[in-house]
Design a protein that fits this description.
The complex is a heterotrimer. Chain A has helices at 2-14, 38-54, 69-82, 99-107, 141-156, 172-186, 203-216, 228-240, 256-264, 275-291, and strands spanning 28-32, 57-60, 87-90, 111-115, 135-137, 160-166, 191-198, 220-225, 248-252, 269-272, 301-302, 307-309. By secondary structure, chain A is of the alpha/beta class. In chain A, the strands form 2 sheets. In chain A, strands 2-1-3-4-5-11 form a 6-stranded parallel β-sheet, with helices on both faces. In chain A, strands 7-6-8-9-10-12 form a 6-stranded mixed β-sheet, sandwiched between helices. In chain A, helix 7 crosses helix 8. Chain B has a single domain, classed as ABC transporter involved in vitamin B12 uptake, BtuC, CATH 1.10.3470. Chain B is built from 17 helices and 3 strands. Chain B has helices at residues 5-9, 18-25, 27-42, 49-58, 60-74, 82-102, 107-121, 123-134, 140-159, 170-175, 212-229, 231-241, 243-248, 253-279, 291-301, 313-332, 337-357; strands at residues 178-183, 187-190, 206-210. In chain B, helix 12 packs across helix 14 (253-279). The relative contact order of chain B is 0.21. Chain C contains 15 helices and 3 strands. The two termini of chain C are 16 Å apart. In chain C, 66% of the residues lie in helices and 4% in strands. Chain C has one domain: ABC transporter involved in vitamin B12 uptake, BtuC. In chain C, 55% of the residues are buried. Classes of the chains: A alpha/beta, B mainly alpha, C mainly alpha.
């Protein structure tokens, strides 16, 4: 058995290293999403549309099944192993771990734009070992968390107990939202954050944890569900507890479910990031740069910002484009 | 590993008495009661009808999956696909309703037909699992892990990764409804809160008996009956105990096993449909939800052995409650999230260690 | 023990199919692996290359180590659900220890060495607890390791308190991503250190360090399993505990040892993770558990214990890894890939079962 194994290995080792690469007129772009969820599916749509418009050759890598470099980097490396891409759009799943692999890809001649998340501290304008990407195009999660706190405060009259249903403590974007929310709540002395729970992207857990929180503090007036699954689970819990409408729900990510709950009165505020826009901006800037490297200066940070859905504007025609679908 | 509990655990005296034996046979239930007492003392908020009902209501899906795994584990196998089959059923049911509504059907009939169709279709993953395991002798771990991937992929394809919307609003009323609504001292209302009831007083409303409770009790009772009192049930235990002896005594092992896995996936499908009624949308199961691990853990806590031959539906149900109330109780007692992971682990082990001190009476 | 309800005894019912069929049957997983490689090599552009081979091995290292860990436990008829979170725990602990040693100014080499050794020692603790619970307190392995999973998770999160473990010494990072041999165009081969080139120039990298290290570790443990008394005892326990006791095997000590060994390997995997990804987090190994157990089962081990070898487990791990890599590189859409992996894995094992039984 060992001999056959060695034979197989030898065959592979003898094989040629690189296939000849044709001189393509089209720019080759690779999109490496962060994880399999509606936010990134929506981003993909934005990227596809922009890519078609710009006439570039787009490849979408496999979606990692869970958040983390151990899931994303093998996919990334597999994709860049056979093809040299001119532009890589990636949502890095670790601020630290992706630095070296991305640098290596950059050194081979690929331009990089990080979307939604960043490496290092996200500031590519100062000299560092992570300043090689063209740009960071994404949300300011800390600011978003803070704004949620402020909006929630307005809704509850700036007093009362609030609770945060979070998801994965090992994701920096999640941590930033929690930190922003916490900082925002401290601005209102009559408000108190009674707990932060982590559901690990499991909606059932979000439901259980929120219900328990409502049991511990019967007088919670507001809840912040900070990603797709936290939001859906927390809303579900509030409905289960019979408190729909009595507890103000602020939800992050404008999935159809969250929007539907907003319309029904189960939720009060939905924050929409702009994944589609992040994606299309990334393509636009990247292609612009590649076509004219000497003269185009890509801004090192582009923050498309958020849109807030309330019951007042949820049916507005202008707002529909921000729903994740 | 063989259990040498009989030799190791015997302590003369108490364990020989009637109470001692009752305790040993139902340790999980006793532990549950013990937990209730301790947690209630630590924080009276724990001891409330609302809390208990909420926890039990949310555990409906875990109950169904634990029941499914009980059957499979008794035969010495494992079913890793239950979580994703649930997601597939949820998504499939939603899709069928969407298609019918688009074709102009009545919402009521659309939902009814969709449920019926999906329940029937839910037998399919189990059939495939069962056939692969019996006819092709694939180990249950791999067979159900393969189905795990297939069900997941299908669910994602059908839903294209997004939650499935457009279902009738009244679904959640059924999924989350209670039989009795009481405002103490003022009125009692059945099957729904009165329309005039103001939101501002909503916290005073007391709800009793969620629809989900009789539903899950009925399902569990039927399964328990099947396991305990039918020939099918006896054969299932026999297969788990000693396959060769079972064959020799005329059990048609293959057919029985296929049936077991079909029941398992049927229950998962039922769970998926219940999920649709509870959430009002069709939703796939996320990758790391690990419903199957919690289901199997509940079954083992309830006293079953992964080697097969032992296990009871009600014991597994108690196992689900133990896991759920452990989390709930510790959280209400104020144990912070990460300390809770540790506490749940430690307490679970303590519970099982004490269980093993008792002689094996099941 | 060793009964599988799905594999009802077929003694005497198998027809003689000749030497060739038996030869194929006993090596089926290897043949399947070769077929996989051939298929993707021909069909998928870029698969048959040194680069992909190295990617396959480099990123497979964590699963390889966890699979060996699981194998030892599974042979005794148990299971270890905690290896993923022990990996995460170790990834965090190793970085934290090295960070703590920095102010002592011992020099990078010593810091890394001490950090790694300390982590491996600390990493034995979860396994010792698991083993003690299973062997001495008769806690079912599923519950013991399920609980340890939670404990490791909680402890890990409490240590990092919301921020990745960071600050790995540069030496460790360069070992983690480094290769034995580099060949840059224009200059000759360089050992261990990557030559600096201009942007856009490709450097040939051969044989990643950690792949070599892992190969050594796996070989050592394969030796332990197949050629030492410890290994023989493990098989005996899995085969028939009572017979093992009668034969004088110190069952409890061995079971304890097996869980400690599993934990050791998981911690080693955690250290490797830290070297590879320059960071540590609690759920680093969470998505690897299922693949590790699957590798063991595909490799032919029975979940009831008593069988399985390191070599076959490695083949099992490679089958999964090659399948994933091949489908990935051929651009299979994500959702389709999940379905295909499930179908093909079942298919592979089905065909194996059709082969006449010549398994260990």
């Amino acid at each position: 058995m060992k001999k056959s194994f060695v034979a197989v290995l030898v065959v592979l080792l003898i094989a040629a290293v690189a296939a000849p690469s044709f001189a393509q007129a089209k720019i080759k772009v690779l999109f490496m999403p962060g994880v399999a969820d509606p936010f990134y599916y929506t981003m993909e749509k934005g990227i596809k549309a922009a890519a078609a418009k710009a006439g570039v050759d787009l490849t979408v890598a496999e979606y990692p099944k869970a958040w983390g470099p151990e899931n994303q980097v093998p996919i990334l490396q597999a994709m860049v192993a056979k093809t040299k891409y001119d532009l890589l759009l990636i949502a890095p799943t670790s601020n630290e771990a992706l630095k070296a692999p991305l640098k290596a890809i950059y050194d081979k001649g690929t331009e990089i734009i990080t979307v939604d998340t960043f490496i290092g501290d996200g500031d590519y304008s100062k000299a560092s070992d992570y300043s090689f990407p063209l740009s960071y195009i994404g949300s300011d999660n800390y600011l978003g968390g803070k704004q949620m706190a402020e909006q929630l405060a307005k809704m509850v009259g700036e007093k009362g107990k609030v609770y945060c249903q979070a998801t994965n403590p090992d994701a920096s974007s999640v941590q930033d939202r929690v930190k922003g929310f916490t900082a925002g709540v401290t601005e209102f002395p009559k408000m108190m954050l009674v707990g932060v729970e982590w559901c690990q992207d499991i909606q059932q857990k979000a439901q259980e944890q929120t219900l328990t929180a409502l049991q511990i503090n019967k007088d919670i007036v507001g809840i912040f569900g900070l990603n797709v699954f936290s939001a859906q689970g927390a809303t579900q819990a509030v409905i289960n507890a019979g408190l729909a409408g009595a507890v103000k729900m602020c939800l992050w990510d404008a999935t159809l479910d969250n929007i539907a709950n907003l319309k029904k009165g189960n939720a009060d505020l939905v924050l929409a990031q702009k994944p589609g826009e992040m994606g299309s901006l990334a393509i636009e800037w990247g292609v612009k740069f590649l076509k004219d490297k000497k003269n185009v200066k890509v801004p090192k940070k582009v923050i498309p910002g958020f849109e807030f859905f309330t019951r007042q504007n949820v049916n507005d025609a202008a707002m529909q484009q921000f729903i994740y679908q | 590993m063989a259990d040498h509990i009989e030799a190791a655990g015997r302590r003369a005296g108490f364990l020989e008495t009637r109470t001692g034996r009752a305790l040993a046979a139902n340790w999980a239930a006793f532990f549950l009661v013990l937990m209730f007492v301790v947690f209630s003392c630590l924080n009276p908020r724990f001891l409330s009808v609302a809390n208990f009902q909420n926890v039990v209501h949310i555990q409906t899906l875990p109950f169904l999956l634990a029941a499914a795994e009980t059957l499979v584990v008794i035969t010495g196998g494992i079913d890793l696909s239950v979580g994703f089959v649930t997601g597939l059923a949820s998504v499939g049911a939603a899709k069928l309703v969407q298609l019918q509504l688009a074709a102009g059907a009545e919402p009521g009939t659309a939902v009814g037909l969709a449920c019926g169709a999906i329940l029937l279709l839910s037998l399919l993953p189990g059939l495939i699992n069962g056939l692969v395991i019996t006819k092709f002798k694939v180990p249950p771990f791999i067979a159900t892990m393969g189905m795990w991937g297939i069900a997941n992929g299908l669910a994602l394809k059908i839903s294209t990764g997004y939650p499935m919307m457009g279902l009738p609003d009244w679904l959640t009323g059924i999924g989350n409804g209670y039989f009795v609504y009481v405002l103490p001292g003022e009125f009692v209302s059945f099957l729904g809160k009165p329309d005039w009831f103001p939101d501002s007083r909503i916290r005073e409303l007391v709800r009793l008996l969620p629809y989900s409770l009789p539903f899950i009790l009925a399902v569990l009772a039927i399964l328990a009956f099947v396991l305990k009192r039918t020939r099918f049930g006896r054969h299932t235990y026999a297969i788990g105990g000693n396959v060769d002896a079972a064959i020799r005594s005329g059990v048609s092992v293959d057919r029985n096993l296929v049936a077991v896995y079909m029941i398992s996936s049927f229950l998962s499908g039922l769970g998926g449909i219940f999920n649709v009624f509870q959430t009002g949308i069709g939703n796939y199961t996320t990758f790391n939800a690990q419903y199957e691990f919690f289901a199997v853990a509940a079954v083992v806590v309830g006293g079953a052995s992964l080697a097969g031959g032992k296990g009871r539906i009600w014991s597994s149900a108690v196992g689900v409650l133990v896991l759920a109330f452990l989390e709930n109780g510790l959280a209400i007692s104020g144990v912070q999230p990460f300390y809770r992971y540790i506490a749940v682990g430690v307490l679970l082990v303590v519970a099982v260690v004490i269980d093993k001190i008792f002689p094996d009476l099941r | 023990m060793g009964k599988e309800p799905g594999a009802v005894a077929t003694v005497g019912s198998g027809k003689r199919r000749g030497a060739i069929a038996e030869f194929l049957g006993s090596r089926w997983i290897l043949i399947f692996l070769a077929l996989e490689i051939l298929f993707f090599g021909l069909k998928t552009e870029g698969f048959a290359s040194l680069n992909s081979l190295q990617i396959l091995l480099y990123y497979g290292v964590l699963v390889f180590l966890l699979a060996v860990a699981e194998l030892f436990v599974v042979i005794t008829g148990g299971i270890d659900l905690s290896v993923g979170y022990i990996l995460g725990f170790a990834s965090i602990v190793s970085i934290k220890i090295m960070e703590a040693l920095k102010p002592l100014g011992l020099g990078e080499g010593a810091t890394v060495l001490i950090g790694v050794c300390a982590t491996l020692v600390v990493g034995l603790v979860p396994g010792l607890v698991n083993g003690w619970l299973v062997a001495y307190l008769k806690v079912p392995p599923f519950i013991a390791t399920f609980s340890m999973l939670g404990v490791c998770h909680g402890v890990s999160e409490l240590i990092i308190n919301g921020v990745y473990a960071m600050g790995l010494p540069k030496l460790a990072a360069s070992i983690g991503s480094g290769h034995f041999l580099y060949v840059a165009p224009g200059s000759g081969p360089a050992l261990f250190s990557r030559p600096l080139v201009e942007r856009g120039v490709e450097v040939l990298e051969v044989v990643p360090n950690i792949v070599v290290a892992t190969a050594v570790v796996v070989a050592v443990f394969a030796f332990v399993l197949s050629r030492t008394r410890f290994g023989r005892h493990i098989y005996a326990i899995g085969g028939n505990v009572d017979a093992a006791i009668r034969a004088g095997v110190p069952v409890k000590r061995r079971v304890l040892g097996v869980y400690a060994l599993s934990s050791f390997l998981a911690s080693l995997a955690g250290v490797v993770y830290a070297f590879m990804y320059v960071s540590g987090k609690a759920d680093a190994g969470a998505s690897l558990l299922l693949d590790a157990i699957a590798a063991v089962v595909i490799g032919g081990a029975s979940m009831f214990g008593g069988s399985g070898t390191v070599g076959r487990t490695m083949v099992g791990a490679l089958i999964i890894a090659v399948l994933e890599l091949g489908l990935r590189m051929s651009g299979t859409p994500t959702f389709d890939k999940y379905i295909l992996v499930g179908v093909i894995l079942i298919g592979a094992v089905i065909v194996e079962r059709y082969m006449p039984a010549a398994r260990k």
